[in-house]
User: What shape does this take?
Amino acid sequence: MTHKTLTVGLVQERCTDNRAENLERMSAGIRTAAQRGAQLVLLQELHNSLYFCQTEDTTQFDLAETIPGPSTDALGALARELGVVIVASLFERRAAGLYHNTAVVLERDGSIAGKYRKMHIPDDPGYYEKFYFTPGDLGFTPIATSVGKLGVLVCWDQWYPEAARLMALAGAELLLYPTAIGWDPRDDAAEQARQREAWITIQRAHAVANGLPVVVCNRTGLETDPSGQSAGSRFWGSSFVAGPQGEVLATANSDAPEILLIDIDLARSEQVRRIWPYLRDRRIDAYGDLAKRYRDD
Assistant: This one.
């Protein structure tokens, strides 16, 4: 079987409260990745700003923008200049009072190949996203690009096997997760280790269960809680790429910016699915209860 190699770059960065500075950092990371041979570049979740969902504050809606809009214009121009596909993560203003957490894919000619609106919206201490984001309404549909069919999901989606499976069933060739996840600095080292390992494990499991590579880009650095009600969030970086058997191909550090680059052989998915044919053996006739919230027997 012939190889189909895709060089993927991940831009793991610290964010500031300066929107222009953040875009400049992301653009510099994309340039570096492209110069090192990346054909596809993944950015972290909500990379244009600090992670504003630590508190509920209506003034933060001013950060939202339309798609197309300023960020897609700038990143589209960069994609066209460098000849790369870019997966960005934006706070989308769809209409007054209607906002989404949206990943957008810029094709190498600068056009918008497609977008995905985050489907699973958390509402946990330090992650008050339900205040800001309307759940996605575009479904789990891969985005066709010149480098392949991208199964783009966003952060909290990464804990749900259903999301990964539906992308796989729709023909995604790899799964990509822009992410913003970190520790409560007050947690002890053992608890922090458990959380990080759980995060890595669940996504490696998606790779195994679907026979697909998984690409995850997380932000890094301590971001304080502007309300002062918590100790803030220390984003744990650790961006990584796993192969279709869950093997970790590359991992970034946990506490500093890094450009991670890796060659992925997309043809391996076919090889792995031939020996582990999970899609063939699924009992789709017996899964109806998965559409229920809970089985109240």
